[in-house]
Design brief:
The complex is a heterodimer of chains A (about 300) and B (about 160).
Chain A (H helix, E strand, L loop, with lengths): L1 H7 L10 E6 L2 E4 L2 H11 L4 E4 L12 E6 L1 H9 L3 E5 H12 L2 H49 L13 H8 L34 H8 L3 E4 L7 E4 L10 E6 L5 E2 H13 L3 E7 L11 E8 L3
Parallel strand pairs in A: 1-5, 8-10
Antiparallel strand pairs in A: 1-2, 2-4, 3-4, 6-7, 7-8, 10-11
Helix pairs in contact in A: 1-5, 4-5
Chain B lengths: L2 H20 L3 E6 L8 E5 L8 H13 L13 E7 L3 E2 L1 H10 L12 H6 L13 E7 L5 E8 L8
Parallel strand pairs in B: 3-5
Antiparallel strand pairs in B: 1-2, 2-3, 5-6
Classes of the chains: A alpha+beta (about 300), B alpha+beta (about 160).
Amino acid sequence: MAAMMTSTQPPQPPQPGPIRISLIAGRYLLFSIDSVMEIRRKHGLCCVLTGTMPQNPTQNLFLGLPIELRAEEARLLVERGAAYIADETSDHLAKLKEMSSEAGDKRREAYLRGLKEKRRTAKRLFNEEKAAVKKMHEGKRKGGSKKEKAAPATDSLFESPTSPVVEAAAKKEVLPAITPSTSSALLDKDSISGAIADDELPESSAFYRYLNTRGYFTTPGLRFGGDYSAYPGDPMRYHAHFLANCYSWNDKIPMLDIVTSGRLGTAVKKSFLFGAEREEEEGKKEGDVRMFCVEWAGM
Amino acid sequence: MTLNHQRTEALTKIVLNNLQHQHDWTHLHPHSQLNLPRTVIYGLPPKRLYVHPDEQVEIIKAEKEMRAGDRIPQEPELEWVLPLHLSEKWSPAEFAAVFDAIDSRPPGSTEISPEEEERSPWLAWKGSRRGKRVLLATVQDDSTVTYYWMHDGLVKPRQN
């Protein structure tokens, strides 16, 4: 089984077409593991795993797919042309309505064909696996065949011709059930169905873009009391360098906030980073961000 | 003289006194400039206050090549100080104005020539590679002063 699992998932080439970010109940979710890998490798986004198990929905230690993106992360991917945001509620309804039309028949056919194709592949792989196992056992049996021949004749009482029932059962062995983990089969490969309009896109954050384009990964910063924790690379490899807060250009920041965050940051070997996007003035280009780092001076 | 002016003057005085008498700083000078939101201070701490993590790497490398036990002496350098009161609220715009107005090295800092920097790479962190930084001196009403570094831009934290 394990062998089959690995053989059915060869390293796939990156998906063509943009990644589909599902907007469901105001949250930006990604359901496909390939997309998750792609945004992590190419765009420095690790995001947050939010999926739990249907059998045990209260367990929240080992979460899986889908991952949830922050609004600014989703926006950044859209800006780069790497993804589109789909309004799943309306798109799902539209797709369901479409199913009862002629186009729906075609879609259904294609879906079933896809399933059959998968089934065939699985069967072939399963048979190959079985043949390999059989071969292995035959090899063993040849080694021990002398003993078997020497033993029988005496106790004819237990001698039974290999029962045909057992053999038939072995042949009809059940195929492993395949549950598709995503509904991507219902979608056309390159379409961007349900994509939301440009003016409904989430607000972009120059502060976040500034960190991301400099190779910083970010995770939610609540555990250090900030907006983000910023890592100099993948969080699997690095400790966070900064706890980061984003302000507006003319936000009045209480000194106590700066002092306490600076103190906390130093206590966990980080620096407190805050910044803002410069408000548009003459001669300043949009997206100009100023960053400041605060740490305890040790005196 | 406005009330605001009096307040900042008092603030500067408290910080100057604190640096001089509690922290043994020398060469202290208040520094005013037209484009600065308020008077800042620069002075010389008794020992070096800030070593950039990359500079530390350079120093350790160099010390490894020297005789065992030998250390590269770390001379203090002039630093900027920005006096603030705890009750104040500053915006990123105001902090940016301070950093835009000052040089990375206060006036009178030791000059370090490119040749010297080439010979001893760690010296560049006192010269051409020194980023802008100010010491935030936050004063509370009980005359407690706390000191925090503020760097301009993304500066990785020290390994302390």
